[in-house]
Structure formats: structure tokens, C-alpha cells
Amino acid sequence: MKKLFLLAAVAFLTTASLAQSEKFMASMKANIAAIDTSFKNPQNLLDLANKFERIATAEKNQWLPYYYAALCQVNYTYMEKDKTKVDAIADKATELIDKADALNANNSEISCIKSMIASAHMMVDPMQRYMEYGTESQTHLETAMQQDPANPRPEYLKGQGLKYTPEQFGGGCATAKPVLQSSLAKYNAFKPASDIHPNWGKQRVEMLIGECK
Amino acid sequence: MRSVVTLIILLLGISAHAQVKVEGKITDGKGKPVKGVSITLRDTYDGATTDSLGHFSFATTEKGKKVLETSIIGFKPFEQEINLESTPIILNIAMKELVTELKAVVISAGSFVASDKNKGAVLSALDIVTTPSANGDVTSAFKSLPGTQQVGESEGLFVRGGSATESKIYMDGNLVNNFFYSSTPGIATRGRFNPFLFKGTIFSSGGYSALYGQALSSALILESKDLPERTQADLGVSVIGIGGGIQQLAKNKKSSWGVSYNYANLWLGFAINKQKQDFFQIPVYHQGDANFRIKTKNGGFIKYYGYMSSNKTGFRSPDIDSSLLKNAFAIENFNTYQNINWRENFGTGWKITTGISYSTNKDDINNELQDANNQKQTITNPSFYAFKNFKLNNKAQYAQARVVLDKKLNGLNVIRFGADYFYSKERSTYTLYNGTQFTETVKDNLVSVFAEGDIFITNSLAAKVGTRVEHSEIVNKWNIAPRLSIAYKFKDDSQASFAYGLFYQNPERKYLPAVASLDYSRAAHYILQYQKLTNSRTFRVEAFYKKYTDLYKTTASPTGREVAGNNNGFGHATGLEFFFRDKKTFKNVDYWISYSYLDTKRDFLNYPKAITPSFAASHTAALVVKKFVTKWKTGFNLSYNFATGRPYYYFTYDNLQNKYVIGDAGKTINYNSMSFSVNYLPNLGKKDPKVFAVWVLGINNVLGQNQVFNYNYNNDGSRKEAVTPPSKRFIFIGCFLSFGIDRTQDAINNNL
Question: Terminus of chain B with fewer CB atoms < 10 Å: N or C?
């Protein structure tokens, strides 16, 4: 009787935790799939950021929901037309990515987000802020490349930045294209660690290369 | 066994149970819907985000007592316990808006902020260097802002009817004495410090904070840079000299040090730009400085800056009393300045800022009457000629210690208090033509304590309330100076501010020791401002009234020197000022316009009655335009300064009335000056250039317009001579190189 009870309890607990992890995977997958379409409407992007944050706080020790929450927030800053609001949103993204960083230190994907956040701060007033945030953004990208040379995203971000920098300042297609092509090669070889690990940006790289013909 | 099965069924049953709907609306304190609020059922995945009407709705399978949280940037997080049963839950939540730096009104009456970070900054740090009329001088850029006069015959800032001595300059909280190179007759000198030392500047044309004192008109508050972005070396060559320096940033980016040395010799500059005066000693300057900066664990800083300079100059100009004679003036100056300060956060909202500074200054002036062959002449009849031969040796030491404590309360509310001790010892020896010497030493111990509070009632209403109490040994009295600023933000983000304050000041050193016991001179400021600031445009209008009481009147000392005699002087200044800056209307063009109207009269020093002082023009205007042409890697900057004529006077002593009377008076012609500069950056956009070069060409008074600053009178007032600039134009050519860092962005900034 005692044995049976124990068995039942173990079986129950296993099912419960399996159910929990299935729920986690399912929610993450659904939300990740929604990121691409959310770019059409900033409100949806914010909604997704909040969803990821809820998963993150409920789970407590998963870095990926924090990572995606930060990714959505930083993308939201790029869509925010009122520049005066950007700094606060970017600070929120920093708060989230720092939590991801605490759970999973030295991660190339996390460094990419940090670079994107610095760029968001810079875009508020590029001329005045380049020295500080431009340098910071670059430093994070360099760190990301060192942390995982196979990760295509640091080069994607670098190439994208170069493409939108005027030629007179050392940017433009000519300098951006080789970087983007190298990124694409890495995308072609890239295999995410799981269905919910970062695996975004390839289409955008193809599009940017397309624009540089 | 059965009970376990029941338990399992029961547990599984819960998750299969019907969902409960939670919905509601979130508003701010005023009933306006808030969109984008995140609603979370604590420790679950369930929640929602509010739409543009503040509505949210979600379904949950959770049961029982749960905590619902709502959060959004700029509001205080809210939580409420809800009991989830079968009935839908409807919530109406009012969230409380936080007072945040981003949304809050800026207390701005009377002050212009030049910074890259501060909210409410009107100029960037680099604007100071790229305003062509400023010639890279820290204070001169502020002459393109309203409230300041276009005074060209002497240095300093003449603000809202105040003399230059009524404006004080502070570096990291400490007063900087001898900020400018020592005065020379009729030629304005420059500020000693390199504008690149500073990351932020606050120029207050009135109503400034209780943290500062001893300035009746204006405070210029300079904040030195923290750590440099990278290690770099600089080299500069120009028509006025050469200079170089290195700035080393530690690998861990926690500390840095730097040294620089500049040698200026105006030989080449004067060869290109013919001077009116006959220089027998071409101005030569040696100047060196050193610094270190250490970032502490809690994000505080320890910063040291040390400076040393020695310079000399000498020139002859025709003597005003006799066409056969010349006046030869020579000065040698040696100056040191050391400033170390420490700021630290102690957690629980406490912050300390403390600093010590020490400076010395030595001036040796020799003035001679010379004949056509430049030989010294001593003429004792008439006697006034004899006094044209003199020597003046000044030696001064200054020390200051200061501590300010900040306590951050909830929101943006801060209380600040501290104390300041300032010691000065100034010794001057005056040697007459016959060798008679007069030596006088003036010492002062000035103690100040102050307290100030920033009170944010809401995001749209804030006040700064402060008081400063001072005691100076010279005056030997206490003074109490209250200060108040209030700011209110309107719905369209424009704002209105009001400022009031009392300001006290000691007599100027050159009128001491006084012949009677004195009180402080005093000014009361009333300022009203309206401002609209967006990313690309700034508009502000300011009206002010300033009342002067107890100004110093001078009298003759037993040795015949002009010294402070009493506090019977008085005056007023009223004015209206506009400022408009626009980076948007014309593509890649940034311009600003300022205009000031001033009505002022005062009776002070040896003035016979209340008159408009010779340093005050009624109308002053400035236009600055900057455009960068990326294709040519070149920036073009233009500035135009205008002022109506200023009054000038000849005072003569009436022995019958036993006082000064106006012997002659007039008004100078209007002042017009257009300056132009071009910056060429050949390495711009090169990938990782080893050297980054900036070529600069600057021309002051391009159009060669006639400028008259004032008139000098001969001994009996029968003849007057215009005080004009030493040269009609000044052409500056220079090349500045940086090694080890791409300064492209500096250069871009320079031009926007």
C-alpha cells in the first residue's frame, strides 16, 4: 500500500512537471511564431513582450523568455515614433536582458540584444550619442562574435548598421555586403539548440543583400 | 489507495475545469485610459495587455485566491488580490503616475544648459567650440545667447545690466578665480581653460541655485568630464602656437590620466593679422595641465585637475595726452590651479560631493611713458604725467573646501545641503614713478552654508527652494539669501517658470581695503519664463526685473587710490529676451537666434548719479548658423552679432560740489560683427584611420565692419579716442590631429 502510494505520487509529480514543461514549450513556440507578424503592429509586439515576461517570471529560472521579452521590447523601441519615450523602453529591455544574463552568462545571443539596446539609445539623438552608445553597441557585437563565432546574428546586426550608415561615414552597401554575406553563410550552417532557441534574422539578411545588388 | 486515486482525479479535474474570465479597464489618476499596461496573474502565464482604450481581458484556469499585478513604465506598479471562482471578474484600476525625470517639468528659469545628456539642454558641449564668434573660448559661446552683452574691450560676461565682476565661474562646484588671463588695457583676454575639458555647462543669467553665491548677476557652472572614451594622443598646430597631449584610459575602463602642454606665440598670428598696438613683447604663453580620474566601486568618481601657466605680453600705444609720447604696458603672469573632488553614492539615497581647490596668481605689471625712440620719460609737470610710470605687483592665493550632501527622497524629490569655506589672500604693491611703494594685503575668510530642496508635486509642477547664509570677514556680517524657482508644465509639454532670489557680493579686490566699514552689495532677481522644447526646436522667452541695492560707491583713500567708501549705490535692470533654435526647417542646417532688450540704470563706483552703464546696450541680437556638407567632409559655421551703441562718459571731479560730475557723454556706433569658420575633415569615413585630422579656418569680423567699444578721454576731457579692436579682422588657421581614435563623430558633432 505504502509502495503503491509512493509510486502513484511519483507518477503524478512526473506527469505534472511534464505537463508544465509541455506548457512552457507550447507557449514559447506559439509566442515565438507570433513575433514575425507582430512587426505590423507595435501594440502586438508589446503584448508579446508582456507574454514572454509573464512566462519568465512564472518560470523564474529560464533565460529564454527573458531573452525574448527583451528582444520584443527593443524591437518596440525601433517602432516608437516618439523619441522621448525610447530611453525608458530601452531601460526596460536592459532590465529584462540582465535577468537573462544572470541565468545564462556569457551568451552570444544576449550580447546581441545588449548591442541592439545600445543602438536604440543612440538612435534617440545619433549625433550627440554616437560616442557613448555607438561604441557600446559595437563592443557588445564584438563580444558576441567572440562568444560564438558561428552565431550569424552579430554579423547580421553589424551589416545592417553599416548598410544604413552613409557612405561618407564608412558605411553603405559596399562595406555592408561582405559582412551580410558572411552572416548568411553562417545562417545556412546554423542549427538552433532547440525549437525555442534564437533562430531569427535570416530572411532579413537575404532582403538586405537583395537591396545591395 | 482509493483516496490517492480520488486525489489524482481531483487534481487532474482542476486543470480540466472551466475557465474564468477576468476583464477590466485601467486609467491614470485623472480617468484617462492607459494603454500598454501589462496585467499578470502572479506566478502564472495568464494575463493581458491593455488596448488603446485601457481595456484588457483574459481567461484563466487558475482557482482560488491569486494576486493580480499591473505594471507599465512611468507608473507605480499596482497589485490586488482576487478570488477566482466561477463568476467573471470585472476590475477598474486607477494607476498612480510616477514623477519621473522623463516626464517631469524642468526648473529652467534663468538658466541655459549646454550638455549632451541633461534633459532641457539648449546647447551641446560641442556647440561651445563650434560657434565661430567664440573662437573656442568657453565663455564666448554664451555671448550668442540672450542676456549677455557684446563687450569687446574687456573679458568676462556682462549679464543683464551687471558688470563682469558680477559673474562668477565654478568648476565642479569650486569657484575659479582668474578664470581669464590677466586683463590688458583695451584688449579682451581669453579664458584659460580648454573647452574640451568640460562635459556640461550651466549658464545662469539670473536666479541661480543656493549652492552658489557671491555673484550679483550670473553663475557659469562648468562640469569636468568623467572618463575619456578611449586612449588617444592629440597634436595641434595653428597660427597662434602648438600644443599636444595624451589621455590614457586604463584597460578596465575604471581610471584615466592625462597631460597636455601648449605653447602659444602670437608672432605668426600678428604677422597675418596686423595689430593696432606696437607689440614690443609678442604674447607668449606656456601652459601645462594634468589630470586623473578614478571611478569608484559604487559609481562615484575621484577627479583631479591641475593647471599651470606663465605668460607675458607688452605693447605700446599712443599716449592720449600727448601725440609725441607713447604708453608702454607690459605684464607677466604666473598662475596655478589645482582642484580635487570626490563624489560618491552611499546607497539609501545619500550622495556626497566634496572638493578642495587651491590656486595662486602672480601679476607683474610695468607701465611706462615713452618718447618717440621708446625711451622712458618721467615728466612731473603737469603731475598727472608722472603717474603714467608705475609698477604693480599682485600676488594672490586662494583655497576652497566644499561639501554637499544629497538625499534622494521618493520620486525626484531631493534635499541638498552643505557648506563652503573660501580663503583668499591678495597682496599688491604699487610703485610710483619716484620709487615710493604702497603695499596692501587683503585677506578674507568666507564661510557659507546652504540648503536646497527639489520638490516635485506632480510631473507638471515642481519647485526648487533654497537658502544660503554667508559670512565674510571683510564685511564681518551675516547675510541670508533665499532662492525660489517654480516650474509648471502645460498639456502640450511647453512650460512656464518663475524664479526669485537674493544675491550678495563683496567689494571687488581692487577697491579694497575700504575706508569705512561696509555691507554686502545686493541684488534681487525676478524672472518669468516660457519655454517650449522639442527634439529639433527650442523656443523660449524670458522677462526679468533686477533690483540692486547697497552697491559700492568709491572714494579717494588717503593715498589717492579709488577705494570702496560706502554702500549708497543702487540700480535696476529690466529686460525681455527671446531665443529660438531650429534644427528641422532646413535640412542639415542648425541655427539659433537670440534677442535681448535691456533697460538699466545704476549709480555705483564713481558715477555721479544713476545712469546707464557703459557696458549696457539696449538691444542685442545674435544669429548662429551651422551646416555640414557630408559630400565635402566640410562644416560651415557663421555667426552674426549685433548690438546698439553703448553710452560712454567722461567723469570730472567738481571741487566746488566736492563730487564727480559728467563732463562729457555720448553713445558709440552700433556694433556689428560677422564671423565665419570652416572645418575640413579629410579622414572622415575612412575605415579605422590612424590619424584623424581637423583643419580649421576661422575669420572674425569677415566684413571688416567698424567697431567702437568705448572712448578714452585725455586728462582734462578735451580729447577722446575710440577704443577699437586690436585688428580689424582676425584670421585663424590651424590643424588638429588625434591619434588612436576615430574622432569622426566629434567632427560631425562639431557641425550640427
Answer: N
Query: B404 in a domain, yes or no?
Result: yes
Which one of A72, A128, A133, A137 makes the best mutation probe of the B interface by having the most chain B beta carbons within 10 Å?
A128
What is the reported pLDDT for B331?
97
Long-range contacts formed by A37-45: CB under 8 A, 24+ apart: A38/A72, A39/A75, A39/A79, A42/A76, A42/A79, A42/A80, A43/B35, A43/B36, A43/B49, A43/B51, A43/B52, A45/A72, A45/A75, A45/A76, A45/A79
Grid cell 561696509 in the structure block, residue? B518
Taking residues B626-655, report their average pLDDT: 92
3-state secondary structure of B165: helix
Residue range A20-148 forms a domain whose CATH class is mainly alpha
Kindly state whether A41 is in contact with chain B, defined as any CB-CB distance less than 8 angstroms.
Answer: no
- Name chain B contacts of A89, Cβ cutoff 8 Å: 73
| Domain end marker among B37, B64, B94 | B94
Q: Are B88 and B19 in contact (CB under 8 A)?
A: no
Question: Any CB–CB contact under 8 A between A53 and chain B?
Answer: yes
Residue B16: predicted pLDDT: 46
Residue B720 main-chain phi, psi, to 5 deg: -130, 155
Q: Which residues of A touch B48 (CB under 8 A)?
A: 47, 50
Q: Which residues on B lie below 8 Å from A92 (Cβ)?
A: 73
| B482-511 per-position pLDDT tens digit | 999 999 999 888 999 999 999 999 999 889
B183 within 8 A of B164, measured Cβ to Cβ: no
Q: What is the pTM of this model?
A: 0.83
What would the mean pLDDT of B559-576 be, rounded to a whole number? 93
Residue B417 has pLDDT above 60, yes or no: yes
Task: Walk along chain A (213 residues) and give the pLDDT tens digit of each residue.
Answer: 566 666 556 555 555 555 668 889 999 999 999 888 887 788 889 999 999 999 999 998 999 999 999 999 999 998 888 888 898 899 999 999 999 999 999 999 999 999 999 999 988 877 777 777 888 898 899 999 999 999 999 999 999 988 888 777 778 888 899 999 999 999 999 999 998 999 999 999 999 999 987
Enumerate residues 168 to 187 of chain A having a beta carbon within 8 A of any beta carbon in chain B: 168-170, 175
Pairing, β B730-739 against β B232-238: antiparallel
Half-sphere exposure of B166 (CA within 13 A, CB side): 25
A51 touches chain B (CB under 8 A): yes
Partner-chain contact B684 A169, CB within 8 Å: yes
Is the domain of B647 the same as that of B568? yes
In a domain, B698, yes or no: yes
Q: Which of B63, B94, B125 is the last residue of a domain?
A: B94
- What is the pLDDT at residue B165? 94
B187: CB partners within 8 A, 6+ apart: B153, B277, B726
Which residues contact residue B587 at a Cβ distance below 8 angstroms, ignoring those fewer than 6 apart? none
The CATH number of the domain where B81 resides is what? 2.60.40.10
Cell 559655421 found at? B637
Looking at residue A98, its amino acid is: D
Beta carbons of B374 and B326 less than 8 angstroms apart? yes
Dihedral sign from CA coordinates of A67, A69, A75, A77: negative
Give the number of other CB atoms < 10 A from CB of residue B299: 9
Q: Bridge partners of B90?
A: B23
Q: Which residues pair with B343 in a beta bridge?
A: B301, B353
**Cα–Cα distance, B26 to B33 (Å, whole number):** 6
A43 to B74: CB separation less than 8 angstroms, yes or no: no
C-alpha cell at B282: 609678442
| Overall number of domains in chain B | 2
| Helices A173-189 and A153-163: angle between axes, nearest 10 degrees | 160
- The boundaries of the domain holding residue B80 are 17-94
